Every structure is written in C-alpha cells, then in structure tokens.
From TrEMBL:
InterPro entries: DUF306_Meta_HslJ, HslJ-like_sf, Hsp_HslJ-like. Residues 156-255 form the DUF306 domain. It comes from the Bacteria. This is META domain-containing protein. It comes from Flavobacterium restrictum.
Amino acid sequence: MKNTLLYLVLVVFVSCKSTIPVVPAVPKTQPTAAYTQQIEYLEQENYFTATGNEPSWSLKIAEKGIQFTSLKPVFESFTAPHVTPERAMDANVKRYQIAIAAGTMTIEIFQQECENTMSGAKLPHSVKIEITKGKIDNSTVFKGCGVYITDPRLHDIWVLEKMNGENVNSTKFKGAFPNIEINTMTNRFSGFGGCNSISGGLFFENGLLRFTNTISTMMACEPQNRESEFLTSLQSTTFYSIENLRLTLKNQSGIELIFKKVD
C-alpha cells in the first residue's frame, strides 16, 4: 500500500513538473536606420548626414562642426567649423563653402531623390562634395545620398493651446481641442483638427518645418468651429521652436500656433 501511494505521488510530481511553461527567448532585433539617426542626433546634434560609395565616404553636419571621412588616400578625414549655407537662386540647392587644411571643400545638397548605389536605399537628397587641395585644378568629387535628421524633440503628442494670439476654448472648438501626434521616425503626423481627423507628412530641414499633403475626414462642422483656420495656419508653418513643454509653429506672415506637450 505504501509503495502504491509513493508511486502515485511521484506520478503527480512528474506530471506537474512537465507542465511548467517554457518562456520563449526574446528575439534580438536590430535598431532601424531611423532610430539610429535619432539617437545620433541626440548624442552628436547632427542635423544632416550623407554617405557614398566608390570610394566609401560619409558626411556629418552639425551646428558645432562639419566632419567628412573617406577611404580615399589623402582624403581620409576633414573637419571644419559650421558655416551658413548659401541657397542657389535658380534651384533648390544648398551650398556650403568651407576652408580646410591646405584647401577648400564645397558641399552641395540637392532636394532630389537619390538611390544608394550599393544598398538600393532611397534618400530624399542628392549630395555632391568637391575637395580641392593645393592647386585649383587638383580637385576630387564625391557623390552620394543624404537626409536631414528630424528633430527628435518633435516626436510627441501636442494639444493646441493658443491660435494666432487667442487662447483656445470651447466656444472655438466644442469637444476636443485640435491636436497633432508627430512621428519623427516616419516624418508623418496625425491628429484632430477640431472637427475632423487629420493626417499628413512632414518636411524637415535644419530650423525648417512644414506640414505637407494634409488630408482630413469630411464631417460637417458647426459654423463657429475654427478648424479651417487651424488647418490653414498649420499648413503655412515654416518655423518652429520648443521651450517649456511648448511647441510654437509660425511663419513670416505672423501666423502662430502654440501647442502644449501632453504625452
């Protein structure tokens, strides 16, 4: 009898032990290129990066300086203080004229889609770098693709607090106030315009921010609702600033939107 009872206890113990769930291993994932760029912006404050091949080279532009590196002999590394770029009159091109050791470096950034010759990845800007060392006729050209790194501080949910000098209240927007959620990884935004759901894209350069290709649902709004004024102001934005948990959007005409961070 004792042997039988001991056997039953062992069977129950083994059965219970075999049902203990196995915790699956968490797969290791690599950070996306967009995430890596965001972290790089935070750490090094680079607002533009570019790369090229044959030979391999890279460019980083920050307010604190410009850095160029390559695998080409004699052109391995150049650093210089930041300069304000010139904008071409007849094309959407920014040009940096930089003095380097024993020569000059000219960086041209074109607003033209570019495909990496090795990876096939597409970036929104084509880049041409011409470095002259010594004699004027002794120059080397590097070509590749680049991207402006969207300010990661924009990545959040923002609720409208003031529009063109007036505080937002329920008489202007019944129910929820206008709000936008900005995703700096995808350069997209979505939100609520005060009556309809809205979404669209972001165009970002250093110090420049535009809300583009805005679409919205087509619900009828009350006559006193000021969604149309909000959307017009949003789409005319060209400049931004962030301070004290507030996002300020404005343009040269004086239009201004002030949002409060809520997330």
